[in-house]
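Recap from last week: sequence in, structure out.
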Amino acid sequence: IVKWVVYGLIEAEEYGVTQANVDKLKADSTDPVVQRLLGKSEDTGKLLGLDRDWLVRAVKAVGNYGEIFERNVGEKTPLALKRGPNAQWSKGGLQYAPPIR
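Predicted structure tokens:
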């Protein structure tokens, strides 16, 4: 379950799902990937023994992967780390999550 929550938070960042917009995207998004991620079109949680809102709750609690990184070790913290290899694969980093299906 932990591995898939991390994958979900990485994928949430990739698709622009944040703490601030997760409820709005769940209600209004027409993107099939976002609908699947947030449990609107598919119940991916069932495969993990969870309910369909598992990723919505995770993002609400801690944000997506990028939000977690920036808040805890990012450039505006005392550690001031750049994303580097912790960036999304599409932005030169190594972070990639397999699709949740």
